[in-house]
Amino acid sequence: MRKLFLPLAMLIMASGMLPAQNKSAGINLSIWKGVSTQPLDSLQTTYFNIGIQSSMNRMNGLGINVLGSVIGRNMNGMQVSGLANMVSGSMRGIQLSGISNINGNNMIGLSATGLTNIAGNQMKGGLLSGLSNITGNNSAGLMASGIMNISGDKAKGVHLAGVANVTGSTFNGLMAAGLLNVASEHMNGVQISGLGNIVVSRMNGVQIGLANFSTKARGLQIGLVNYYKDEMKGFQLGLVNANPDTRVQMMIFGGNATKLNVGARFKNKLFYTIVGAGTHYLDFSDKFSAAVFYRGGIWLPLWKDLTISGDLGYQHIETFKNKDYGIPARLYGLQARLNLEYQITKKFGVFASGGYGGSRYYNKNVTYDKGVIAEAGIVLF
C-alpha cells in the first residue's frame, strides 16, 4: 500500500493543485478532500478515482479508496472503500465497504457492507450487511442482514435477518428472521420466524412461528400460539388457536389412561384445543409417573346444553424412577376420543369420554401399551 500511495502523493503535489476549470480528463487521484488532481465543484464528473479519502461531485465509473469516498450528487458505477461510501443523490451500480454505505436518495443495484446500509428513499436491488439494512421509503429486492432489516414504507421481495424484519407499511414477499417479523399494515406472502410474526392490519398468506398475530387474516397460521383479532378466513394450526371470541375453560378429569388430569381448553366456534398435564400414567401402586398432553378437535351442539366432540391427542410420558425397574424412562402416546358434554349451569358442566390409544418407545418402533380409554370429569366455564 505504501508503494502505491507515495507516487500518488508526489503526482498530486507536482500538479500544483489543478484549477477548477481543468477536469483532469475525469481522473481523480486523491489523498484527502482538497488534496487531489480533480477539484470539487459542480462542473466535475469523475470517471476513475483512486485514493485514501475522496470527495467528488459526480461519478460515472470506478472509485477505489482506502478509507472512504463522498459523492455530492449521483454515482453510476462502482464504489469500493475500506470504511464507508456516501452518495448524497442516487446510486446505480455496486457499493462495497467495510463499515457502511449511505445513499441519500434512490439506490438501484447492490450495496454490501460489514455493518450498515442506508437508502434514504427507494431501493431496487440488494442490500447485504453484517448488522442492519435501512430504507426510508419503498424497497424492492433482497435485504439480508445479521441483525435487522427496516423498511420505512412499502417493501416487496425477500427480507432475511438474524433477529428481526420490520416494515412500516405493506410487505409483499418473504420475511424470515431468527426472532421477529413485523408488518405495520398489510402482508401478502410468507412470514417465518423463530419467535413471533405480527401483521397489524391484514395478512394474506402464511405465518409460521412460535406466536402469530394478525388483526385480519386470510390464509394459514402455524405456531404454538395463533391469534387473530377481527376476522379469519383460513386455518390455524397450533397448540393454542385464539381470537376475541375464544372461550378459555378449565377441565379436571380422571380415567384409566393418565389417572388424574387438569387441562385448559381453548374453544372456538367449531374447533378447540386442550393443553394439560396428568399424574400416574402407570398404576397408583407404582412409583410416580406423569404426562403432558395436547389435543385438538371439533365440537357440535346436539340438543340445548348437550354437545358432542371428537379429538386426536398426543402425550409425552415420563416414568421417573420406574425406569430402574425395567420400564422405559419416557414414552409417547397417540389417542383418539369421542366426548359427550352437558352444561349444567353457566359456570359448570360435566363430560364423559371414550376412545382408544397406545404408548410407544421414542427410540424404536415398538408399542409399549394400548387399549380402550374411559374418562369423566368437570368443566369450569
From TrEMBL:
Q: Where is the signal peptide?
A: 1-20
Q: Which domain of life is it from?
A: Bacteria
Name of this protein: Uncharacterized protein
Task: Write down the species.
Answer: Jilunia laotingensis
InterPro entries, per the entry: LA_2272-like
Q: Which UniProt keywords apply?
A: Signal
